[in-house]
Amino acid sequence: MGLLQDLAKKHKETEIRQARHFGLLLGILWLFFFALIPLLRRHVFVLWPWSVAACLWITALAAPQALRVVHRGWVWLGGALGWLNTRLILSLLYFIVILPTGLVMRLVGRDPMRRRLDPTADSYRVLAKPRERNHLERPY
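Structure (tokenized):
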């Protein structure tokens, strides 16, 4: 039973450390987007982003367990957006780049894999060029 308790303790410590890092980083990002960018664009200085960032930093340093629920939600949201973006980007890549390229290659008769049937051929094997004896001595 000691091993399971040790694993549970390490897991809890890891979650607390992740929540602490999340709170500190979220405070920095909050300041960047809501205080520094408007300041660089010559907007009026406002105090509320600094107070929100300070609350996040104090919570992250004093009681990171309070940020665990927010951290879990953030991780779930990131996973869901990653799943969606992966399917969307790969689908667009396929339909915009790969499919038209294949269709054009078929229209012009290009077959880089040489898949055409040749009834007169004894074999479809493509012989490799023999390499020099020292080809691995200077690979680059």
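The radius of gyration is 29 Å. Helices lie at 2-40, 48-62, 68-108.
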